[in-house]
Design a protein that fits this description.
DUF2065, 46 residues, membrane, transmembrane helix, flat, mainly alpha, single chain, transmembrane
Length: 46
C-alpha cells in the first residue's frame, strides 16, 4: 500500500467523525462518482 501512515491517519480521522457527518461525506462521494460516470459516458468512444 502506498503511504501507510497517511492511510492510518485518514482512517483515524474518519473513525472520529460523527455518524451524521460521515453519512453526508459518503453520500457526497457517491453522488460525485455518479456524476463522473455520467460525464464519461457522454464522451464518444474511439
Amino acid at each position: 500500500m502506498f503511504r501507510p501512515r497517511l492511510w492510518r491517519r485518514m482512517n483515524m480521522a474518519l473513525a472520529q467523525m460523527p455518524d451524521s457527518l460521515l453519512r453526508r461525506v459518503g453520500g457526497d462521494l457517491v453522488v460525485a462518482g455518479m456524476v463522473i460516470c455520467y460525464l464519461l459516458s457522454l464522451t464518444p468512444a474511439g
